[in-house]
Recover the amino acids of this structure.
C-alpha cells in the first residue's frame, strides 16, 4: 500500500472550510449561551471557588506545566532534526565537490551521516525515520502557527474568563462576543490558548508517511487537547466553546497547510 494514497475522501481545502464553519457556528450559537454556562456550572462550587484551583500543584503540573514543556521540547526536537539533516546534507555536498584526493573524506562523511541519521533505529532519528524535510517542517508549522493564531484572536476578542464574570462571582458582565469585541475590556480568554497547543499536534494526522495511522493520531491529539482544555474549564479559565473553537482552528491550520505542503503528494485530495 502506497503511503501517498489519499487518506480521506474530503480534500484538505474542504476540511479547512468545514473547520471554519464550525468556528463560526460555535461563535454564533454556543459562545454566550446556555450550553457554555451549564457546562461551566458543573465545575463551579460556590463563592468564586471552582472544582480545581490553580494553586493545586499536582494538577497544575500534570495538566498545565508538563504538557506545555513537552510540546516545547517536541518543537525544539523538530527544529534540531531539520537543522542536523541540513548540516549533514551540506557537509556531504561540500565534501563531494572537492578534488579526487578528498574522495575519502566524502566517503567518511557519507558513512557518518548514515550512522547518525541513515538508520531507522538511530535513537535520535528513529521517531522521524519516515519523515521528509517538508514533513517535519509542516508538523512544526502547524504546532507553532496554531497557538499563534489563537493568541492573536484572544487579543482581539476581549472575552473574559468564566471566573471573571458576575454570574460566577466575578466583576465583569456576561456579554455576547460582538459586545466583548466592542467593549475593548482587558480580557483575553477566547479562544483557549492552552488547549490549542495540544490540538496543534493535528499536523501529525496529515503527514503522508503516517496516513495509515491517521485516525489514531486524530483520537490521540483530540484526547490531549481536550484534557488540557478540560483542566482549564475546571479552574474557571474557559468555557466549553473556547476549547471547541481552538480545536477547530487547529484543524483549519493543519488541513489548510497540508494543501500547500502536500499538494503533489495528495493531488489535493485527502
Amino acid at each position: 500500500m502506497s503511503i501517498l494514497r489519499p487518506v480521506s475522501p474530503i480534500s484538505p481545502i474542504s476540511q479547512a472550510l468545514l473547520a471554519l464553519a464550525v468556528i463560526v457556528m460555535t461563535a454564533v450559537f454556543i459562545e454566550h449561551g446556555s450550553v457554555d454556562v451549564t457546562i461551566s456550572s458543573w465545575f463551579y462550587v460556590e463563592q468564586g471557588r471552582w472544582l480545581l484551583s490553580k494553586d493545586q500543584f499536582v494538577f497544575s503540573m500534570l495538566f498545565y506545566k508538563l504538557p506545555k514543556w513537552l510540546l516545547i521540547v517536541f518543537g525544539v526536537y523538530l527544529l534540531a532534526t531539520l537543522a542536523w539533516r541540513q548540516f549533514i546534507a551540506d557537509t556531504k555536498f561540500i565534501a563531494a565537490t572537492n578534488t579526487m584526493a578528498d574522495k575519502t573524506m566524502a566517503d567518511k562523511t557519507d558513512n557518518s551521516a548514515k550512522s547518525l541519521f541513515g538508520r531507522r533505529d538511530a535513537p535520535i532519528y528513529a521517531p522521524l525515520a519516515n519523515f521528509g524535510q517538508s514533513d517535519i517542517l509542516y508538523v512544526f508549522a502547524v504546532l507553532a502557527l496554531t497557538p499563534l493564531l489563537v493568541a492573536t484572536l484572544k487579543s482581539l476578542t476581549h472575552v473574559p474568563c468564566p471566573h471573571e464574570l458576575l454570574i460566577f462571582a466575578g466583576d465583569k458582565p456576561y456579554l455576547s462576543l460582538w459586545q466583548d469585541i466592542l467593549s475593548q475590556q482587558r480580557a483575553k480568554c477566547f479562544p483557549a490558548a492552552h488547549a490549542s497547543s495540544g490540538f496543534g499536534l493535528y499536523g501529525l494526522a496529515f503527514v503522508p508517511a503516517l496516513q495509515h495511522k491517521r485516525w489514531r493520531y486524530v483520537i490521540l491529539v483530540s484526547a490531549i487537547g481536550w484534557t488540557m482544555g478540560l483542566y482549564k474549564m475546571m479552574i474557571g479559565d474557559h468555557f466549553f466553546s473556547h476549547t471547541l473553537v481552538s480545536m477547530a482552528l487547529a484543524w483549519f491550520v493543519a488541513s489548510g497547510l497540508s494543501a500547500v505542503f502536500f499538494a503533489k503528494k495528495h493531488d489535493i485530495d485527502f
Notes: Confidence is low (pLDDT under 50) at residues 1-7, 112-121. The CA atoms of residues 43 and 61 lie 19 Å apart. The longest helix spans residues 57-96.
